[in-house]
Design goal:
The chain is α/β, with parallel strands linked by helices. The protein is built from two helices and seven strands; from the N terminus they run βαβαβββββ. A five-stranded parallel sheet has the order 3-2-1-4-5, with no helix packed on it. Strands 6-7 form a two-stranded antiparallel ribbon.
């Protein structure tokens, strides 16, 4: 995705929108935690929009001690300006208020998807949504 947008990892500035239903995962790491673990090495910038800032305190302290990264944690109210260039949205419900994101930011919803006709949304209690689209032949 970064290459398609002409970005390298050094200029990657993610805004992570925390999940709105953290209790739905059964004995596994929350998607947010998995993504944070995957991108921590070499990250130069991170903003986390959350209603549960205490949840991220240990991870924030670890990133500052291990990598020197100052993680910015802001409330989801979004009254505070955001400065990232890619929005990673882990909320399942509601509409994203894209007006609060920087104009050039890339928006990536991980859980939200507007379904079109002829698509099938199969919801599995443990796993991810799957999208099946009928192909024209």
């Amino acid at each position: 995705m970064l290459e398609l947008r002409g970005l390298d990892y050094r200029r990657f500035r993610p805004i992570l929108i925390d999940t709105d239903c953290p209790g739905q995962v059964f004995g596994e790491e929350v998607d947010v935690d998995q993504v944070l673990a995957q991108m921590e090495d070499g990250l130069n910038f991170l903003e986390i929009c959350t209603d549960r800032p205490d949840y991220f305190t240990d991870w924030k302290d670890y990133m500052e001690a291990e990598y020197g990264l100052i993680v910015r944690i802001v409330p989801k109210s979004r009254d505070i300006p955001l400065y990232g260039n890619m929005v990673l949205d882990f909320e399942r419900y509601g509409e994203a208020d894209v007006s609060c994101f920087p104009e050039d930011a890339i928006y990536l919803p991980f859980q939200k998807r507007k379904w079109e006709e002829d698509c099938l949304d199969i919801k599995v209690p443990i796993g991810y949504n799957m999208l099946t689209v009928r192909a024209e032949r």
